[in-house]
Amino acid sequence: MxxxxxxxxxxxxxxxxxxxxxxxxxxxxARHGHEFEFVEALIGGAxxxxxxxxxxxRTIDACRSSAAVLLGAVGGPQWSDPSARVxxxxxxxxxxxxxGVFANLRPxxxxxxxxxxxxxxxxxxxxxxxxxxxxxxxxxYFGRKSRTAHEAEDVCSYTTAEIERVTRVAARLAMGRRRxxxxxxxxxxxxxxxLWRSVVERVLTTEFPAVxxxxxxxxxxxxxxxxxxxxxxxxxxxxxxxxxxTDEASMLAGSMGLLPSASLGDTSVGLYEPIHGSAxxxxxxxxxxPFGTILSAALLLRHSLGLESEAAAVERAVADALTAGVRTAxxxxxxxxxxxxxxxxxxxxxxxLAR
Length: 355
Fold this sequence. Notes:
There is one protein chain. The chain is an alpha/beta fold. It has two domains: about 200 residues, Isopropylmalate Dehydrogenase (3-Layer(aba) Sandwich), CATH 3.40.718; about 140 residues, 3-Layer(aba) Sandwich (Isopropylmalate Dehydrogenase). Helices cover about 45% and strands about 20% of the residues. It has twelve helices and twelve strands. It has a ten-stranded mixed beta sheet, with helices on both faces. Helix 10 packs antiparallel against helix 11.
């Protein structure tokens, strides 16, 4: 297979972790006879400094002409003024809109060898396997915004069509798993959540009768993610709730550095990125955890390139590296040795090529 992949390193540790994911993809190509072309472009703060725009036209063109987009992270203290007219996060939001990616998939799994990395008791988190499906282009992040000296407004809005399409994505995923969906909303307070609940129920009842589902208020979901996380299979929710809940769920796995994500739309061109931020405090030190980005590259292989066996091989290689004790600082027990980003990438590549 020949494929062009846009690589947007972004800010902070973004370029460091995407570099390791690219090396893994290069190893996959060499091992399986594929040809991957990587095109680098700017986004976020780095793009603002270079061109004044957080998403320059050249970056948009590179993404639109590629089979998939691999992203690191955006943002940092030098661009953190909330009153600034141009901010790094605007580039990420606009990229999602441009690519039409409306369903954000965030798998959360625990691994036996890393149960001690979580602040929760091992018996609570052992066996966790959750797929969070977050609606990505609607809700309060994309609604009308206004601000005066004494008042501000962020409008949360959803359409029936937006809820229908993300529900279908979640249902198709559930059909390949345990056929259970927990739809998270705040229907006791919000009109958008009441619409969400009614549309989700209609779609699942009429189109996916084999899928069991329940509705859960977001505050209860936040509690039960920590109290009984193994009960969840597919968790479906709107944009802001999904953003918050998946950061919380990262503590089940032990670190945000371990978790990947895939943002998908109606075409095969997807956006793949770890769920963590730019971590400017450790940028440039070579110690960032690249596993979440490498696992995002596995999702890229699966969802945009249709290379299921190659994706599974990358996931096994990461799991085997962790089983063998390869630990970056964020998942290392006190007093034990950690490895840097490059060594973690080497460990994955070594296992990939040995198969």
